[in-house]
Amino acid sequence: MHYRDSIHHIKAFYDADCGMCSKARNRLSAEPTHLDVEFIALQSDTAKELLGAHYDADQLRKEIHVLAENGDLWVGGDAWILLLWSTCRWRSLATTLASPLCKPMVKKVVGLISENRFRISDLMKLKPDTNPTCTTGHCAI
User: Nearest 5°: phi and psi at 14?
Assistant: First the structure.
């Protein structure tokens, strides 16, 4: 995976109303990273301000979006691969998932999970994040 060396900070927009999304945010927040990663609830005013013309509430609810400080925007499977690539532990897996052989499958799997995230949350009894340190709508790793 070839990301620009100029990327040092990314912002991941997640659905704070989704238990699985909140769990993923909490899990990724616990990982040591190569980049500064900030999680921002898509429902927040901060998300609207940062995404500007890219802010589309319906599209944000369908797939995760990740924004780099240079303005590059990744969506869905590409966003998940970038988030994994940002971590120390999962970078090699992200590189494999970004290969031409795996990337189409990743996009399909991430799409299916995204479409069914509320059902998955219910089945796994995952509740939306109520982390008091994350009440402003953005949470840094």
Answer: -120, 160
The whole-model pTM stands at 0.84
Cβ burial, residue 123 (10 Å; 0-12/13-18/19+): exposed
User: What is the rounded distance in angstroms from the CA atom of residue 59 to the CA atom of residue 56?
Assistant: 5
For residues 82 and 125, what is the distance between their CA atoms, to the nearest angstrom?
27
pLDDT tens for each residue of 83-128: 999 999 999 999 999 999 999 999 999 999 999 999 999 999 999 8
CA 48 to CA 86: how far, in whole Å? 24
Q: Quick one: residue 129, left, alpha or beta (phi over 0 = left, psi -120 to 50 = alpha)? A: beta
Dihedral of the alpha carbons of 58, 111, 119, 117, in degrees to the nearest 10? -60
Secondary structure letter of residue 129 according to DSSP: P
